[in-house]
Design goal:
It is built from ten helices and five strands. With 195 residues, it is α/β, with parallel strands linked by helices. The chain has one domain (3-194): 3-Layer(aba) Sandwich (Rossmann fold), CATH 3.40.50.1380. Strands 3-2-1-4-5 form a five-stranded parallel beta sheet, sandwiched between helices. The longest helix has 30 residues, at 165-194.
Length: 195
Amino acid sequence: MNYYALLSVSNKEGIVDFAEGLVRAGYQIISSGGTHAVLQAAGIPVMKVSEYTGSPEIMNGRVKTLHPKIHGGILSQRGNPSHELDRKANDIGLIDIVAVNLYPFKETVAKPDVTFEEAIENIDIGGPSMVRSAAKNHKDVAVLTHPGQYGIFLDALTGNVSMSIEGLRKQFALEAFRHTAEYDKAISDWMENGL
């Protein structure tokens, strides 16, 4: 069975080392856009999201990870017979690790010359969807939303920290929901101020 990790980050700090650690641990890496380019340039074996899903990125990149093979792989409950049947019928692999941090919306709207259109295009859709899917299914999936979590997770993966992988997944899920809540608040505050 293949073990998949999906990495799609706007903040590239530490992502190469993290991906290398995951490859050493037996994971296949799926990635998109700039993250894919960074990992490929570092010589890390990485598959594009579009290769994995069989669907191209469309609408100027607005739609790339919003796909059943992505969200089915993240949300599938391990050991649930109905989910297993759906996965097999739709050729969906299991995605066990999701490392995503979101488009830099607050930094974008803080620029004095930012246009409304530029701000709108920096509202991440696929990222929060993947983060929330992984956080919801944290019993089976690890969600990492900050580079500071990478080393901790790799240590736990190899048994080098006292907290279990299960405990870490739960803690990271809590941090993920906080991350998306703060992101949505930044967007709603910006929109409210513009009305």
